[in-house]
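Exercise 7 asks you to align residues with tokens for two separate proteins.
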Amino acid sequence: MNAKGVDISVWQDKNSTPQMFNPLKARAKGASFVGIKTSQANWADPDYSQNWAICRPFLYRLPFHFLTWDVSPRRQAEVFWSLLERDTFGLLPLACDFEWWKTVPTRAMDVLYSFMERLKDLASPLPMAIYSAKSFWDPNGSHADYWKQFHLWLCDITGPVDVPKPWDKWTFHQYTFKLYGPDWGAESLDLDGDYYNGTLAEMITRFNLPELDRLSIPPAPTTQPEPVGGLRMKVISDGLRIREAPSLKADVVDYLTQAQVVQVKDVVVTETWAKLGERRYAAIYVDGEHYMETV
């Protein structure tokens, strides 16, 4: 059976709600990996940091950068790698998303080439991949054998699967845009679904990955100290945002993971928000939903 995964970005999340993507729901549906949009052009995806950290203990991560034509491709590769280089534990290939964006230049392939060459300079010997569809690759890519050094993450939702040259087979296959997101841990109704071209055991061997249940070793980095004494509360939702004020309209400054226990300094706004520190608040109870409980 093919290993299963999903891919996510800021579009799978509602910033106006307390919760985030829940990797445990994806695991329960059989997913073993998650594609995470890391960056686009010269900026990080708005949900990259929280998605990167919250998925780390539970799913293999397949990071991808959305390539654009308006920023130096070498600079784009540098931005992409700068977000990844401190945490490469349990990673699948570093992928470049090569697809439609605004007016595609005549020599789009040259932009991709410059990006991949710079990424090789920065990140070798880590494996790398290109995400594309045959309908985009054929008119904008190349059949040169050079590209076979990169794994193919093929977008093909219509079938039968048609692999563009020079590849003979795909490594990852995005087969649908229409998984029901809430069942898989997303807030969006639609969610992309992916396969690896082989079993989970084969994927682990091919990319020299730790066993899936050992991804939390070493533990995921966190900015939260271990709670000691006082009022302690546990997150009971699918992850939880920390905001700079006790309001869903306030800016997000950090996040908590499901089942994480924190020390609460005060309970404010008619006992519906937990104050965790200076300009750090998490929702306890909002709009009829509980997000934290006392432990």
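Second protein for Exercise 7:
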Amino acid sequence: PIVAFTGFQLFNHPVVPGKEVYGFRLAAAIDELDEIVLQHNQNFIALEFAALSYADPASNEYAYFLEGLEEDWVQAGKRRFVSYPGLAPGTYTFHVKASNHDGIWSEKPRSLRITVLPPWWSTWWAWMAYTLLAAGIVYLFLRQRQATVRRVEAAKSAERESMRKRMARDFHDEAGNRITKLALMTEVLKRSQKVDANLVEDIQSNIQELRSGMRDFIWVFNPENDNLQETFFRLRDAANSVFEHSDINLSLGTLSQKAEAIALDGNQRRHIMMLFKEACSNCVRHSGASEAELAIDILEDHFEIWLRDNGRGFNTQETESGNGLKNMQVRAKKAGGNLRIESNKGAGTRIVFRSQFTQTGN
């Protein structure tokens, strides 16, 4: 038998042509339509239907299937209506068929296309707007990040340039002083009636210091040396140079592989070098020691470089105002760390530089 739609309800309210229910209006009788279009908030519907078989209407049975929601036909028996609460936005096709008292089913089901529109915030143009907005936010974020990176790089570049100028100025002053001393000493030597061995030794010492200063200056400017490992290698060479003509036996601690991954910039390396060169020089001149040790300890979040001797030691409270110790404290601060001096009379001395570190790799 042929099946016809006999009614349509929205939120349990019958909808007839010309009457608006919850903002929805039928353009014609429901059986005359092939499609209805609903808003997202008009999604509680019910359909009524009937078979046009009048021989024994009470024996007619029905089956329906909402394509897009249900996967197979639903046997409704003699029930002539179905409701769908809360249909999600999408396109559906409702099919219904009937059987007569002889059990013969409709050759062609009656169908109705049902479209539930999405809310405006879920439409394609809304998603396009979201995409454009997200892209705009990402673009602004990346642009801001690039600007921040450029500012940071500019600041780092300015700091490096400032550091280079300071180092060049310091080296210029130091080299100028030594050259002036050399000029004066050679002038004295030239006027002298005989060769003064002490004066010649002073000249040689100043030339050596000038040469060492030039090597340090070049070493500091090489970015390949910007790590703790290279700093200790250079410090080891400088210490050997200071101790080699003394009566003090210098031993060197082993170096952990972690040292290569600990970053130090040129400014830090320079001040660490100057600090420990002065410490080594003080040890040779004043400690009266027979043994000294230079080593590095790398802990969880910081490292310590230390120089220890078995010399006569001193009272740190009595000598803390000395210019030498003050200069070392200043250099430790400029190197991004702090200096600790452990010493007692007759118990030797231990100079410890401590600094937090940043790893550049594994």
